[in-house]
Write a structure and sequence with these properties.
about 190 residues
């Protein structure tokens, strides 16, 4: 029962962080949401057994995701609201926070998809296209490229990226078995 509660809480934290990130970006306030995301991630890290493994997963996925979204920006396909003033060529911090929240879910609320690559691919591809569309509707991003083409392209990328992310997160969790990165769950 405790594991189910933690998985539901994990998903709720993701959703709240995602919504707040989009809302704050659309309002031109790029730094409140990352602060909230950081608080969510700290809470999350107190609920996991392999803290260092989880930090590695979150950091690496957030960096890869920021790189991908920076490529969209550099290609002129998407414009992100509330970006960096000093580095307008880089995907904004609020978006990096969303990637970190996504990574936080891989071994928890999304773990049921591990080993189901086709289902994960279809869900990843369709849900991500829907998420980018929702971000556009609330004003957090502006899709500049032909909309259907870009959302299809993003969906295809995520068809492969989501199952790979699940495999990667599981691999890191398994490989990270040192006691320095593990601690028993509280309670």
């Amino acid at each position: 029962m405790r594991q189910l509660f933690l998985k539901v809480l994990n998903y709720m934290f993701f959703y709240v962080g995602w919504v707040l990130s989009l809302q704050q970006a659309s309002l031109g306030k790029p730094y409140l949401a990352p602060a909230i995301v950081a608080a969510i991630l700290v809470i999350h890290l107190f609920t996991v057994r392999k803290v260092l493994a989880e930090v590695l997963i979150i950091a690496s996925i957030a960096l890869i995701g920021t790189f991908i979204d920076t490529l969209y920006l550099l290609a002129g396909a998407i414009h992100y609201q509330a970006g960096y003033q000093t580095a307008p060529w880089l995907a904004p911090l609020w978006l990096t926070g969303i990637w970190a929240l996504y990574a936080m879910c891989l071994n928890y609320s999304l773990s049921w998809l591990k080993g189901h690559d086709l289902i994960a691919g279809v869900l990843g591809g369709s849900c991500t296209a829907i998420c980018y569309s929702a971000a556009e509707r609330v004003g957090a991003i502006e899709i500049i490229a032909p909309r259907v083409l870009l959302l299809t392209f993003i969906g295809v990328i995520w068809f492969f990226l989501f199952p790979l992310s699940l495999r990667y997160s599981y691999w890191v969790l398994i490989k990270f078995t040192s006691e320095s990165g593990s601690r028993p769950l509280p309670g």
